[in-house]
């Protein structure tokens, strides 16, 4: 049995449609996401049921369709709107940021040129954290390959043929060996398994409010897990929680583009970038995104 649901969201006039689609187009083989023209189709798990999420953007509107496999699946119109708004980055108050910094002597011109830039989100915080763990200290192409094999190994398939990104419930059924077969290192396999077990036990919740104290507590819990470092936490917060105050000073592209922006002959090191970005709190990650966007169409 399959159930279909529809909703629609109005987008800001300056919404970066190409950037949103590019973020979901990293894996050209498209085992769990397909991007065609102005549309993305993505396999997700919706309340334990395989589902196909389709977002089509036309005339400054996002049309969202959710096709759920299974008998009498749970559905909430509000929950679907929240998911779509989250993925589209619409929960980010970028207009306030732009009004504050559009005349800044260093980044004002960049922000004006890239007005409307948002940080597009993974479907869930767990997906963002899984990607961050996979992507630690390896190339983008290697991370994409491991992610693909991970999704294929779990093998939750929607009736459309697309595979669904696993949740912690599927991961805890895996062994270290299973993940190693997908290309995970021992450390990464153990980290993802530990995260999933903590979520399952109720000892870890991948949720935060806008309170910095909650961000700090979640950060501490994640850093306590062997195999998870600050880069991983910052990336997960960036792509899974709409958190715009993480510092991306460790990112090579951010530092390279900052050097270009500052017209500086010497390379900008991580310490210098961290100090420079600190001046833009609570928007450090958004400034980092603007720096990255200078030379990339897909974000990090």
From TrEMBL:
Q: What keywords are annotated for this sequence in UniProt?
A: DNA damage, DNA repair
Judged by the first EC level, this protein's enzyme class is hydrolase
Catalysed reaction, written as an equation: Hydrolysis of alkylated DNA, releasing 3-methyladenine, 3-methylguanine, 7-methylguanine and 7-methyladenine
Q: Where is the HhH-GPD domain?
A: 134-296
EC? Answer: 3.2.2.21
Protein's recorded name: DNA-3-methyladenine glycosylase II
Organism of this sequence: Xenorhabdus littoralis
